[in-house]
Amino acid sequence: MHEAKNATDLARLFAACRSGHVAVLVGSTEKMGVGTNVQDRAIALHHLDAPWRPADVDQREGRIIRQGNLNAEVQIIRYLAARSFDGYMWQTLERKARFIHHVMSPSLDSREIGDIGDTVLSFAEAKALATDNPLLMDKAEADATLARLVRAERAHRRNQDTLRRGIGRLEQHIVGRTRLAADIDLAIARRQDTQGGAFTMTVDGQRYRKRADAGHHLLSILRQEAASQLGSRQRTLRVGELGGFTLTATISLALGQARVTTALDGAPDAELTLTARDLDEADPAGLVTRLENRLSRLEASKDNALAEISSARSEIEHAAASLGKPFPWAADLIATRERSRQINEQLEAAVTPPPQDAGRESSHEDDPDGGARRERDAGPGGVAGDPREPAQRMATPQRPSPPWPSAAERQAGPTPAGHCGQDADQDSSGIRRREPALPQYRDGSRPHGHRDALADPACEEREAGQ
Questions:
Q1: How far apart are CA 459 and CA 466, in angstroms?
Q2: Strand pairing partners for 238?
Q3: Considering the domain boundaries, does residue 23 fall inside one?
Q4: Residue 263 belongs to what H/E stretch?
Q5: Model confidence pLDDT, tens digit, residues 191-225
Q6: Chain centroid to CA 151: how far?
Q7: Which of 41, 109, 265, 332 has the least CB density, counted as fewest CB within 10 Å?
Q8: What are the tens digits of pLDDT across the range 132-181?
Q9: Prediction pTM value
């Protein structure tokens, strides 16, 4: 396929494939993807490797499972090597395809979709695939499963904590809404009717029967107080009465702008906040009407509070049903941890060498005469247990001993090499002689058992006479 360099060569190659002159066509997914029309006589498709995307598999198989194929049945063959990277590639394709199917499916029977981020190849899995060790493969799989279950258990615990805190927050909200509903009931009981001709309002000690007059007087007071506000310290003053409630005004200064908040003392949710610009543009009668609406909406405020209480109780019941539930995969987590521990023990036992000294000591204790038998079996000039012939053993070169004493000899002190018929520590007169403090070095050219003349002159004279 890659030998076709241009469009003319490709068209000629495709025509030869369709006519049957080309029996085998080899190419990559990109080269034999979209636009490759050779399906007329195609009988088998061979996947030599696995791509990263499920769409690439569809493109490959679309070259043979295609309209215009003259064969009633075709073969699709995939090649995989045991204990290789191929298994991981096809597994990744399977998970990606399942994730895409869940996303594109119109059904709503599933509320959760597995994250394909868990299919990313880890260092442990790559090492296991490369070493072809079944234990390492099992360890990589067990570690991945254990990590996933640990994350799920941690999420379950967080969910339980969230439910517990949510229940406490909802209970406090119910207490607050219940108190608000009780305050609204008290406000409704003391509220006076101001609708229509029954309107009356007091502003700065002066009683008004018309909303416009009361509004003019109220706006003048509020504007004057807002203009005289200095500093950020807020002030609260009483400006009148409306519907049986005392009307108060709180003046504050925020970011260089004065702000006035009116409230009907004793009536919940009856506040009205106005800026200096709002005071300049406000209609006098409209301002009084807005204050009256705060009193007329007390019943609606109570209904909202009761609805919030009902909703909070329903949420508490739903949360309480899920609170305290055990982790659903606790048994799998315990089994996976035990399996991971067993695999680790097997790996440690495989790399730990067996003790050697204990076996040798026990053999010596069981057979104390074994050393003597080995010496007898060795024979003259032989080695115990050596299966070679005597000629071969004699031909083995022996390492000469150095002319200086070994470390063991130096630690034990000078040892006489020959006696010459009497004690080496005594001279010919029988008087015991002290050995020199320094070790006696031997001459490499003289026999190993020959002593120095200075060490034993009587022995040397007898040797010379012989």
A1: 11
A2: 248
A3: yes
A4: strand 257-265
A5: 998 888 889 999 988 899 999 999 999 999 999 88
A6: 7
A7: 109
A8: 677 777 887 888 889 889 999 999 999 999 999 999 999 999 999 999 99
A9: 0.49
